[in-house]
């Protein structure tokens, strides 16, 4: 039996009352310097790579919205503190705005690239046998302590080198929103871990290890988005919203080691460094 092809990743916009109700959260988005990027400076091949990269980023933000929705449900089921649930509630709307920003950037460089999306794979998988508290922690680790903690320095590093005003402005808007996204998982762990056994912490370490290996596949060049930037001069990369591959890898390694694995271990979750991350790597300059 052949399975049906995955649907295309496409976004739509309703306008009217839906748009009016989301206006507060989108404040400032329409004021960014849209239509200022001169596409004639770049070859069609480079623009195609940028279309793909920004489309993949839009899809990642779409997945981040779904992931925070799943984390919220898990925290409610685990009866997490109400203010912590409130903190995470706005992150779904943040990620929806980021989806729009990345999709509009794809349009700025020539239009969204064809991309298939698996509606069953938007959110990190969690073992259904875990109890409610473990499930919330597992999603907190995969979504926030790993995914969001990783993406903030990468985005900040890209913003620091971005040479096009529009690219810099879009990345700045995203970075400002993202800062608390990577905090909520750590606060959740600090509340929940004293309630969990050593065996639970071992299971959570396995969740972290799987998420870190998936990230490693991304920065080591296995993803379409990473492949897109290979072989291009730094000037072009910085204009269109990439770091150089070396800079990206340096930020990735340092972030995984110092901001993810070490803080998990300090909390009694024995996560492992992915194979390519050396324990004694020299620190990279912090992204401004
Ligand atoms: Fe985001
Ligand atoms: Fe985020």
Question: Would you write up a description of this structure?
Answer:
This protein has one domain: Up-down Bundle (Ferritin). The protein is globular, with a radius of gyration of 19 Å. Helix 2 packs antiparallel against helix 4 and helix 4 runs antiparallel to helix 10 (245-266). The termini are far apart. With 288 residues, the protein is an all-alpha fold. The model is unreliable at 281-288 (pLDDT under 50). The longest helix is centred in the first third of the chain and has 34 residues, at 44-77. It has ten helices and no strands. Bound molecules: fe (ii) ion (2 copies). One fe (ii) ion is lined by residues 61, 64, 95, 98, 174, 178.
What key phrases describe this protein's structure?
10 helices, single chain, 288 residues, mainly alpha, Ferritin, binds fe (ii) ion, disordered C terminus, globular
How many whole angstroms does the radius of gyration measure? Answer: 19 Å
The total of helices stands at 10
Measured distance between first and last alpha carbons: 53 Å
Structural class: mainly alpha
Overall average residue pLDDT: 92
Shape: globular
Just name the CATH architecture: Up-down Bundle
Point out poorly predicted stretches. 281-288
Strand content: under 5%
How many strand units? 0
The quaternary organization reads as single chain
Largest sheet: none
Give the ligands present.
fe (ii) ion
Please name the CATH topology.
Answer: Ferritin
The string of secondary-structure elements, in order, is HHHHHHHHHH
User: How many domains would you count in the coordinates?
Assistant: 1
Helix content: 55-70%
CATH class: Mainly Alpha
């Amino acid at each position: 039996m052949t399975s049906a092809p995955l649907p295309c990743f496409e976004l739509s916009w309703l306008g009217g009352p839906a748009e009016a109700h989301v206006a507060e959260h989108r404040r400032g988005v329409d004021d960014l310097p849209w239509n200022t990027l001169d596409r004639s400076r770049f070859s069609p091949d480079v623009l195609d790579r940028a279309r793909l990269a920004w489309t993949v980023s839009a899809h990642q933000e779409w997945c981040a919205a779904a992931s925070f929705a799943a984390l919220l449900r898990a925290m409610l089921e685990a009866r997490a503190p109400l203010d912590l649930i409130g903190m995470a509630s706005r992150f779904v709307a943040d990620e929806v705005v980021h989806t729009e920003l990345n999709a509009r950037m794809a349009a700025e460089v020539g239009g969204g690239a064809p991309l298939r999306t698996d509606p069953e794979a938007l959110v990190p998988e969690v073992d259904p046998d875990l109890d409610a508290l473990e499930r919330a922690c597992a999603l907190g680790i995969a979504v926030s302590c790993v995914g969001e903690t990783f993406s903030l320095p990468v985005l900040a590093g890209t913003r620091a080198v971005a040479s096009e005003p529009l690219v810099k402005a879009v990345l700045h808007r995203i970075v400002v929103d993202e800062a608390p996204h990577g905090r909520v998982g750590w606060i959740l762990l600090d509340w929940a871990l004293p309630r969990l056994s050593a065996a639970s912490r071992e299971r959570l370490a396995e969740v972290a290890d799987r998420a870190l290996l998936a990230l490693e596949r991304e920065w080591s060049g296995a993803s379409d988005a990473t492949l897109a930037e290979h072989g291009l001069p730094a000037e072009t990369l910085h204009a269109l919203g990439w770091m150089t591959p070396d800079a990206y890898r340096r930020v990735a390694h340092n972030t995984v080691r110092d901001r993810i694995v070490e803080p998990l271990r300090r909390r009694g979750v024995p996560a492992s460094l992915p194979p390519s991350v050396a324990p004694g790597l020299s620190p990279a300059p912090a992204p401004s």
